[in-house]
């Protein structure tokens, strides 16, 4: 599963887990992008941070691994190169490439799309707010997965606004964001505020209110 993963969230993890179960996959390789060329007008966090958050998020699942192929390859990231690199590393494997509905809708604009189809089986998963396109091809499958209305954009915006991201992203990712002060940006926060945004602020209003 390729992605910018800025940050990785439970929408990614549920999609990967569902596809692994449905297709009987032995391994799901998460591949953080190096330079996502279709996001060049968006500020993207350093690739090492996105890679490390992906490692933290997937560590507890023995079938989940993380690849550096895209972040170690210079230049813009194209899936054609990702799949060629993964094929070189795993010559015997049957390759599947997992994408959400929004990415699937853009796939015809991807580099070398005609050749891309021959390198893997593509699995498009449902995502709230996005229509899964009908792609009438032999090596494309569509899969309905539990709806997780989460995006990395919303997570970044929540951190900037000092709102919690607990339970939207894995606990270790909450801590990583706070520790390295990611997404503190525009909110004008200093280090202390960034720590409050992630590590210790559990969303309580400090009045002793208890919800059940
Ligand atoms: N909630 C979700 N449910 C299903 N698929 C998802 C979900 N979020 C992301 N994906 C898919 O995961 C892949 C990587 O997504 P990406 O890292 O760009 O996350 P994002 O939440 O879309 O990020 P951003 O908001 O920054 O654009 C894409 O194929 C995307 O469609
Ligand atoms: O190959 C391409 O031209 C291409 C264009 C846009 C996106 N992708 C891939 O699609 C995956 C999801 O991308 P994104 O930008 O939604 O995180 C990721 O692996 C990208 O490298 C690939």
Automatic annotation (TrEMBL):
Species per Swiss-Prot/TrEMBL record: Arthrobacter halodurans
Reaction(s) catalysed (UniProt annotation): nicotinate beta-D-ribonucleotide + ATP + H(+) = deamido-NAD(+) + diphosphate
EC number(s) per entry: 2.7.7.18
Pfam families linked to this entry: CTP_transf_like (PF01467)
Keyword Nucleotide-binding: yes
Alphabetized CDD domains for the sequence: NMNAT
Taxonomy, superkingdom: Bacteria
Role: Catalyzes the reversible adenylation of nicotinate mononucleotide (NaMN) to nicotinic acid adenine dinucleotide (NaAD).
Protein's name in the database: Probable nicotinate-nucleotide adenylyltransferase
Keyword Transport: no
Entry-linked Gene3D superfamilies: HUPs (3.40.50.620)
Keywords for this protein: ATP-binding, NAD, Nucleotide-binding, Nucleotidyltransferase, Pyridine nucleotide biosynthesis, Transferase
Similarity annotation: Belongs to the NadD family.
Pathway entry: Cofactor biosynthesis; NAD(+) biosynthesis; deamido-NAD(+) from nicotinate D-ribonucleotide: step 1/1
Enzyme class: transferase
One example GO MF annotation: nicotinate-nucleotide adenylyltransferase activity
Residues covered by the Cytidyltransferase-like domain: 1-158
